[in-house]
């Protein structure tokens, strides 16, 4: 160990330790009265701070999206004890991945999710802030840059009457993708709709969803594939299950990017 | 009558969807606002709230009374999840201006009013701190920075960070009790 154990208390509190360091500190904490007291004090002194946050309205449609995703979360998470397994999961999987084995055709509150996402797109497009100033990133400040957003209308394939809109917020490596679709044909059994982003003919999963009884469906997905990608197409297909690695069904809707 | 958080939590552990919904409605706005305070990003904040409730739903035995008040514990989980997601997204940050959302304040329930009052109270107390102390609380608590990052950002020796954080928080506590007393007298 390079550092005195007591010195990493703040980093422990802020969850800034590696797994190994954390275990080491937790062992130390068992036997160090000073650290126990300081940790308790830190918790007490900061207990009010969350309430200093200015109350803001949750995003439109958030309740429906969150609750449906939570309820679809695979309970095998229970088997994943400990925080390491949890940390290794990429966050975008949690947002939208529908895990096989659990019934997927179940929106929590089917009624308004998709419509509300559309209104999010409407507001979102108006309020996104573009800052391409490269000079702001000095001095270790958490300054933010590189925001580009685009919106695409997806075109239905022949004989398909569905409609869909995709909004992308691109960063240097990641893309937030929000897809909203309507007039979707109903699904059967384990079927799902799958969003794909395509690069040179190779499709990557970009969100799974099931429409409600009115044929409305929506998903928000953080595209987070390693390496550099130039997506050339976005497409929606109907898949036999939620875990297709490549598209099995025909393309219902698509758009070049 | 308002059901206790702990009772709701027990029902959630037993996979009661109705209880999940009730607890969600009770805490959505607070957790979302706090996550937004931490991340300054609505997409991430929604992701934070979703992760917090996913944990509640899928992992049994996360909370028991030895961990203190349920609401404080839930806020701690929210903070840790925010720090974790911020770290994952750090390489590709972006910013959304959320003016509309900030203007749209509808304190619909008694709780939100109370929270707004305490928010004003805490903000008043924070403003009475020196700007160095305000900054160190911001970097430590709301940005969740490591000690070494705080040292570089503030240009102070690493060994002094812990002491400064504690001092700033203790001063805030004193200011807060002063603000409270003034409030009582007024
Ligand atoms: Zn110690």
TrEMBL record, chain A:
Residues 112-249 form the Anti-sigma K factor RskA C-terminal domain. It is a single-pass membrane protein. The chain crosses the membrane at residues 111-130. This is Anti-sigma-W factor RsiW. GO terms for biological process: regulation of translation. GO terms for cellular component: plasma membrane. Its main location: membrane. Residues 11-36 form the Putative zinc-finger domain. The keyword Chaperone does not apply. It comes from the Bacteria. It is found in: Cell membrane; Membrane. Pfam families: RskA_C, zf-HC2. The lineage of its organism: Bacteria, Bacillati, Bacillota, Bacilli, Bacillales. Belongs to the zinc-associated anti-sigma factor (ZAS) superfamily. Anti-sigma-W factor family. One of its GO terms (molecular function) is sigma factor antagonist activity. The keyword Transmembrane helix applies. Keywords: Cell membrane, Membrane, Transmembrane, Transmembrane helix.
From TrEMBL, chain B:
The keyword Transcription applies. It holds the Pfam family Sigma70_r4_2. Residues 23-90 form the RNA polymerase sigma-70 region domain. GO terms for biological process: DNA-templated transcription initiation. InterPro entries: RNA_pol_sigma-70-like, RNA_pol_sigma-70_dom, RNA_pol_sigma70_r2, RNA_pol_sigma70_r4_t2, RNA_pol_sigma_r2, RNA_pol_sigma_r3/r4-like, WH-like_DNA-bd_sf. It comes from the Bacteria. Residues 124-172 form the RNA polymerase sigma factor 70 region 4 type domain. Keywords: Sigma factor, Transcription, Transcription regulation. Gene3D superfamilies: 1.10.1740.10, Winged helix-like DNA-binding domain superfamily/Winged helix DNA-binding domain. Coiled coil: none annotated. Belongs to the sigma-70 factor family. ECF subfamily. NCBIfam families: sigma70-ECF. This is RNA polymerase. It comes from Virgibacillus oceani.
């Amino acid at each position: 160990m390079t550092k005195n154990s007591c010195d990493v208390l703040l980093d422990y509190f802020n969850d800034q330790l590696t797994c190994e360091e954390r275990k080491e500190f937790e062992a130390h904490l068992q036997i160090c009265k000073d650290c126990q007291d300081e940790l308790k004090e830190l918790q007490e002194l900061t207990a009010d701070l969350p309430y200093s946050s200015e109350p803001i309205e949750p995003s439109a449609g958030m309740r429906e999206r969150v609750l449906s995703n939570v309820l679809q979360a695979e309970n095998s998470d229970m088997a994943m004890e400990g925080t390491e397994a949890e940390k290794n999961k990429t966050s975008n999987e949690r947002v939208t991945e529908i895990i096989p084995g659990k019934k997927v055709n179940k929106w929590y509150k089917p009624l308004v999710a998709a419509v509300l996402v559309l209104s999010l797109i409407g507001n979102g497009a108006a309020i996104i802030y573009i800052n391409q100033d490269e000079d702001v990133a000095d001095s270790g400040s958490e300054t933010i840059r590189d925001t580009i957003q685009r919106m695409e209308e997806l075109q239905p394939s022949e004989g398909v009457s569905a409609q869909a809109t995709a909004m992308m917020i691109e960063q240097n490596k990641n893309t937030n993708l929000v897809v909203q679709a309507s007039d979707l044909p109903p699904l059967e059994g384990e079927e799902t709709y799958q969003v794909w982003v395509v690069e040179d003919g190779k499709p990557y999963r970009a969100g799974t969803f099931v429409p409600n009884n009115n044929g409305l469906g929506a998903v928000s997905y953080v595209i987070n594939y390693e390496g550099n990608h130039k997506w050339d197409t976005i497409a929606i297909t109907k898949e036999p299950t939620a875990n297709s690695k490549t598209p099995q069904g025909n393309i219902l809707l698509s758009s070049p990017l | 009558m308002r059901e206790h958080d702990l009772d709701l939590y027990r029902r959630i552990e037993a996979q009661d969807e109705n209880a999940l919904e009730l607890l969600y409605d009770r805490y959505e706005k607070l957790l979302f606002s706090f996550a937004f305070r931490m991340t300054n990003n609505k997409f991430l904040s929604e992701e934070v709230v979703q992760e917090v409730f996913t944990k509640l739903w899928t992992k049994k035995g996360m909370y028991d009374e030895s961990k203190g008040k349920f609401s404080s514990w839930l806020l701690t989980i929210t903070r840790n999840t925010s720090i974790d997601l911020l770290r994952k997204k750090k390489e590709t940050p972006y910013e959304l201006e959320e003016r509309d959302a900030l203007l749209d304040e509808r304190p619909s329930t008694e709780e939100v009013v109370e929270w707004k009052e305490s928010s004003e109270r805490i903000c008043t107390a924070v403003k009475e701190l020196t700007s160095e102390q305000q900054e160190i609380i911001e970097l430590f608590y709301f940005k969740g920075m490591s000690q070494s990052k705080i040292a570089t950002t503030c240009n102070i020796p690493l060994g002094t960070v812990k002491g400064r954080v504690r001092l700033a928080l203790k001063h805030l506590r004193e200011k807060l009790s002063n603000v409270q007393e003034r409030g009582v007298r007024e």
